[in-house]
Amino acid sequence: MIPSSGELQADCPCQSGLSFAKCCQPFLDSSSAYTASTAEKLMRSRYCAYTINDSEYLLKTWHPDFRPDSLNLNTEESVSKQQWVGLKIKKTIQGNKNNSIGQVHFIARYKINGKAHKLEENSYFEKINGQWLYLKGDLKT
Predict the structure, then answer these.
(1) Domains, the chain
(2) Residue 12, SS3?
(3) Which residue among 18, 46, 47, 73 has its CA within the 20 to 30 Å range from the CA of 58?
(4) Chain centroid to CA 16: how far?
(5) Sheet containing 101-112: which strands, arranged edge to edge?
(6) For 17-43, what is the mean pLDDT?
(7) Any alpha helices (H) in 31-110, and if so which ranges?
(8) In b/e form, how buried is each residue of 105-134, taking b as 16+ CB within 10 angstroms?
(9) Residue 16: its H or E element
(10) What is the mean pLDDT of residues 43-68?
(11) Alpha-carbon distance 42 to 29, whole Å?
């Protein structure tokens, strides 16, 4: 899905305070060579990928040892019923440019059929050949 120029200038869905064009869009652009420099930036870009149903990016940034064979985000049911509405990063452990592992604790808010929900998770990341990849997440209940 190619965002319109208006969407590029809008606030990034990851709620970093930057425009989408200056925050996560360069990572999501399949023709771009940009990769996230920190685990948190990867987390934010993956959240944005969920907001626009970009399963290709999600799979590309998933560690191969944990990556599912496919993601089906573009079903008519999922697109019409689920809406991602906010991301809050609670804590980041390591995951910087000089680290090889990282952890990001976040809360993602979404609505299904207008009803509010939240997903709270500790996500784990590993840097391989200079690229941060999502390993797995532990859901908080």
Answers:
(1) 5-140 (3.10.450.50)
(2) coil
(3) 18
(4) 12
(5) 82-94, 101-112, 115-128, 131-140
(6) 93
(7) 39-51, 55-60, 76-81
(8) bbebebeeeeeeeebbbbbbbbbeeeebbb
(9) none
(10) 95
(11) 14
